[in-house]
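Q: Hi! First time doing this. I have a protein sequence and I read that you can turn it into a structure. Is that right? Here it is:
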Amino acid sequence: MLTVCTVYVYCFVVLSQGELEMFAPSQEHNLRLLELPVALQKGKVVLTQDFTVCEEGETLTPERAKILEYLGYKMAKFSLTLVSHYNKEDGFKQLLEISS
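A: Yes, that's right. Below is the predicted 3D structure, encoded as structure tokens:
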């Protein structure tokens, strides 16, 4: 079975420069891996510049989805389009054409 999955954002999330109180200092490395501009200052996680996590209508990347998950947002609409299927009786059947 072949499926095409896309997740689109339906709101705008921006983090302002400053202390990120919701994160422990031990999470700083993980946040950097997610491309957040963070640093440890006096044992606290600090965002070094404003950061746009997502904008309405854009495709959500796995990294941005993880940031939203850390922030407690559940804002993505998930859709699944079945483009083909297989069964023993009929074999492979393509339902929709997809472009590469």
